[in-house]
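#onboarding

Welcome to the new folks! Below is a worked example of what a typical request in this channel looks like: someone posts a single protein sequence, and someone else replies with the predicted structure as tokens. Don't worry about understanding the tokens yet, we'll cover that in week two.

Example request:
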Amino acid sequence: MVKGSNVSLTSLSENIGSVIVGLGWTSPSGEGDADVSVLLLDANGKVRSDTDFHFYNNPVAADGSVQLLGKTPTEDGNEDRISFDLTAVAADIDRIVVAASRYESARFGELDDLQVTLADAAGEHLLRFAIDDAGAVSAIIFGELYRRGQEWKFRAVGQGYDTGLAGLATDFGVDIDDDAAEATEAETLSGAESGEQPDLAASAAPPPVEPLPQAALEAIPAPRRPDLDAAAAAPQKPAARPRTAKKKVTLPKVTKKSLAENESWREARLFPVSMLKSDRDREMRATSVLLSVMAQVPEFGRGLTAAFGAPAGRMETFTEVSLPHGDTPRRPDGVIRVERAGKLWTALVETKTNGNALKSEQVQAYMDIAARRGYEAVITLSNDVALEGSPLVDVKIDGRRKHKVALRHLSWAEVAHQAQLLIRHEGVGNAAHAWLLQELLHYLQHENSGCHGFQNMGSAWVPVRKGIDDETLCQGDSRSLEVVESWERLIRQVCLGLGGELGQKVLPVQRAKRGADPGARRALLADRLCVDGRLEAELRVEGAPGLLAVTADLRTGRLRTSVEIPAPDQGYPLTWAKRLIRRLEEAPADLHVETLIEGEASGPRGTLERLRPEPADMLPKNTATRITGFRLSLLKGMGSGRGNAETGFIRSVDDAVQRFYTTVVACLDSTTPRRASSKERTG
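Example response:
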């Protein structure tokens, strides 16, 4: 789309009851970012009340029409996604404005690749609008959804504001906090005392905006202008930030000192696990604990179900519900129901713990029940991790049925990850909710709960390792494919664990063309495992200077974790080497540092212990060669067992990634401008 153009959504898709709008940008420094906001406007171009202004402290509309989903890492940067349920938008809402703002002195001209995209409920991308002329503005209206009769349309706007979020919100009728205004006024007076003269004319005038085509000007509400007579009679208040909701609650990582007399005393817990004796007991307790917390902590329940198509609304959960199915009623482990705008979204839940596998016959029965009763989804929950193109259970879908039921899977590791994000990083509505999540997390992590995530590399692990050792493993062996799938499951779980600690997305990198068959990709990796004897993976950590690589060499029994840092664009090689050694002051002495040389397989290398007194040893003898970067690596022995015991392979991989990130990657300055390596550009 081009600036000012518009399009009817029904002309793009038949499935536009719900849409996803994505706002994206990239930052040359790797640090630039912006905050997304949404304003619901009536026919007068104003919000009905402050609750129609949705941003980071008011992310969900009460009627479920708006849901800010947060940031999602992409190949080029970040994308902020917003879910709109157009069927739930109130009848007196005429227009929905989608905007973003930067803070302090930052401007959108410092960001690259500004764009807005729109996808339908099925995830199909419908349109894209790129903003190429952002300039020195601190807020931008990317686009808007608006009604024309009985249909919805989208307009590409690209209108900039010099006055930031406060100016944008004020123009559309959002009230401003008095204390915020006083704070801003104090800053203005402080600047005047220091010799800086405030521009009173600018503060009284409406915020400057970028020009738009005439067709777009008629549909965009004009900025709210102060009454000129009133302005002459009374001084103008400077623009200030809009009113924000109450700050969300997080719990500190360091626990308070215990009042117990000695370490043998056990703290009372809301969800005890000591009396669980059988797998059935564990499944019933885990289901009840999880579903009850989902219903009581809206952010948690929404976080687990949003990806499954559930709306934002009032959630109720049930366990051991009896549902008719032929001659024998079925009792799914749980039911989730969400009410939104008078409509119900319902899912059946089937739970497994302690490494027990899901049963196809059982899940098939629930799929049939859900289809007959008009339920939207069946959610399976177990320690296993689902992979794209490799379902955990095989079910048959009756294509003759008009109502379609989605089969979704959650691992217990994903549940723990969501709880940890809210407890430590994103926050919840009040302290009681934070405590509930902490009790849930304690329950999930207890050794007797059975909710421990992926814990077994499978029956093929030992034969494959033996076949690699004695060189009898042949390409095409189905057991090597099983090991590759288990490795991918393990890496996904490692990403969840590290992401929960950091409070951000950590995603595995798949170096395959978009749309490629996942089965074919894994078959190729299985053949490479037979030849090279290595399992390899890459993790993308937001803010890290490069991809975190993990290699398990089954021949040598060693794990390598590494990251490649691109060389700076300016300066001298010796300066780069000295600066890198200083940044790694707290890193392990056995860290391997290798200099990457253009056109050569390897360059100078050594341990950090040896290079600390002599950083010049990192430089090639031929000064004419071009240094492209540095590779940092840690090596450790890997566990031999297939399980998650202290000596197991799974535990050793998780420990290696955690140690490498905390002792090496965290030492690196992520604000250094990052130049993409040739490997990433061609990946």
